[in-house]
Amino acid sequence: MNLILHLLLDAAVIFGLAYVMPQVDVKNFGTALLIAVLLGLLNFFVGWLIRFPLNLVTFFLLTGVIRIVVTAIILKLIDKLLSSFTIRGFWPALVIALAVAVAGMLIDRSAPTPEMVESGYVALERIVAQLQLV
Predict the structure, then answer these.
(1) Where would you find the membrane-spanning parts of this chain (predicted)?
(2) In the chain, which end has fewer C-beta atoms inside a 10 angstrom radius, N or C?
(3) For 85-106, what is each residue's pLDDT tens digit?
(4) What is the dihedral of CA 76, 26, 106, 74, to 10 degrees?
């Protein structure tokens, strides 16, 4: 469920920023969803190949910054792969990568932990929320 939420939010962020930024062009929301899927797959399979040497050079002190820069590089790679997605310049790709990282962080922080789900805290929280609405 969390993966689907991440993909939909990443697609919404990409599509929304394409609407706001004139340097970015996305054909439709389906294309933005495809970009989000490709971004996740390429980050998983290729991203670590780029991130690991860069993290070694910086002694793992700039891991977050390197992750955002590598995501921007992967977005530029997706730009070359898809004709319905264009990014003119590296800075817009960096802005999109930063926005996707912030959105992902917000989802991860608001998601309940497995311990919370097992203890019934989440179910109890929903019951209390429903009682307050009535």
Answers:
(1) 28-50, 57-78, 90-107
(2) C
(3) 999 999 999 999 999 999 999 8
(4) -10
